[in-house]
Amino acid sequence: MADLALVFHWTPRDMDPMSLDELMGWHERARQRHQPEEA
Fold it and tell me: What is the 3-state secondary structure (H, E, C) of 1-38?
């Protein structure tokens, strides 16, 4: 969850209602945004 807070500026309160599957989807988006793959 720390990566989501860092990339999207979300608080734990913002993430609390999300399911684990939803959080994992956002985790992948945060990873792509923070460490984009080189072309």
Answer: CHHHHHHHCCCHHHHCCCCHHHHHHHHHHHHHHHCCCC
Residue with tokens 């913002």: 14
- Contact assessment for residue 30 and residue 8, using Cβ atoms and an 8 Å cutoff: yes
**DSSP summary character for residue 1:** -
> What is the identity of the amino acid at 32?
Q
Distance of CA 35 to the CA centre of its chain: 12
pTM over the 0.85 mark: no
Higher pLDDT pick, 1 / 14: 14
